[in-house]
Amino acid sequence: MSASVKRLFAGTACVALLGIGLFLLWRIRARVEPGEEVTPWGGQAETPAREMQSEVISTSVVRYVAGSEAWREHPAPVALPAPSAPPQPRTKALVEKIVNGSNSVPGEWILRFKDREAMQEFLGSDGPHRGRVADVLLSLNSVRIVDMSAEEVSRLERETPGAFEYSPNLRVEQPRAPGKWSVTPDSGVPGAGFGPQTLAWLGIAGDHRKWGEGVSIAVLDVGVGSCPSLEGAGVVRVDMTGETQSGARTANSHGTAVAAILSGGIPGREGVAPSAQLISVKVLGDNGSGDSFTLAKGIEEATARGARIINLCLGSRGDCPLVRQAVERAIAAGAIVVAAVGNDSTDGVSYPARYEGVIGVTAVDASGKRLAFANSGPEVDIAAPGLDVWAAASADTAMRMSGTSAAVPLVSGVLAYLISGNPGLTAAEVTDVLLRNSNDAGMPGRDREYGCGILNAGRILDRGTSGIHDAAIADNCIDAASAGDGQLTLVVSVQNRGTEALQGADLRVMIGEFSNAVRLTDIGVGETAGCRFLVRLPGDGPTNVLRVASDVSISGATDDNPLNNARTTVFTISGPAGQR
After folding, report:
1. pTM of the predicted structure, to 2 decimals
2. Residues acting as catalytic residues
């Protein structure tokens, strides 16, 4: 064989080996590795995915200061004024629209009178309402009417102009139980449950048996039953429904599980605030259903009994003026109202979580991702564990709970700790501490899915300890609102979760095959820096994979929690690139 032929053969072999190596490298990079976040975007994948050859066009950084727009201030309670002129009677069409557009109890109405005198005059008079008054709420000058049509109540209003305002008595229910396999939004991937590790995940370790001491918490639910976990809690029980109960027994364990998560006392398997005083206010029937009038009565009862926290794992689809007024009065009295946003997989928070001043709680899985069943909206304030949360029933048994109902008592329990340990703080100040020390997630800053972030009891415990340096990758997200024309905006969030300002931090982001470095300076305590990368996508084609790997390091100090310094997210993008 001649020398030239040998050289040609060797060159061909090298090219072949290089080609094989490049092919294997492509296969490795295109693979979704175990433990990565897989987030479909732009629709569900229908064809095999390939890694996108994207290109970063530009970068920018936007700061989000902890606590800014963190709390939705509520207006001061306003009493129902006596109108200077009789209001215009509602037309039959308007009344029917009100009834048909709400989830109301058939034939039931709530009448709110302008004052006590007007209510007493009404109750003492003859008319179509005689024999139809089912309940009276003196503190709010309100009456519950049953077995009355929309036309009849409208006529009654016309006959007594200016005496009262009326509205349908809406249904109130415990949040529907999520499916057996709860998933993160749009992924179709089962979420990771918490099991017995919920408190450790939140950063609650060591002896916390005194948490909640001296704090009364009202649990408005189906009633709190008897179980070994609550034997030492001295639960005070009040029934607003009129259902006959034998002692502390209840046919529905929903309220009992909520109470055990909140204040269970099994040694080594305690709830969040074992020393809190529980007031069980039964406002839902054993079937998990109730009504707005009874809920308002329960809130008034909790306020009258001096509850510092009102825990509401229930909701309604409509705005009831009477419930809104009861909530406003409770907040004005110094109570903190905490409510579930609902498990309807919809963009719309349930009432009363939607009201101003109420802490609306959503649910996440153990990977910190919001669960698909949890409702979203601007009224979401904070997220907490909500998948397979264990509540100790006895020393060797546990109740397992999923949904926003599991998340609410975790938030209420941490609030009880803050109140018991800081008696000088107002309700607004306690709430501010809770929200400012949450872990930012989703889009940087307050958002419709996570609110101010995910509950972190560890940061609350450490907030007074100086010298903690902690830079965290809060999330990798695609800003759907900015996508289109063959490009999208990727947002990588870096949050300072320590107690010292970060003078400098280096962010490195791999977007596909492109490496990007961003130098961040002067990140305040709790502040989030949202780094936006404008990415050009390839043209139309099959489903594509965009792999984003981000990590951050602190300069000039040692990171006290390096476990949250990196995050890898794989986005699957289907359809024409960049289209929403």
Report:
1. 0.84
2. 221, 254, 405
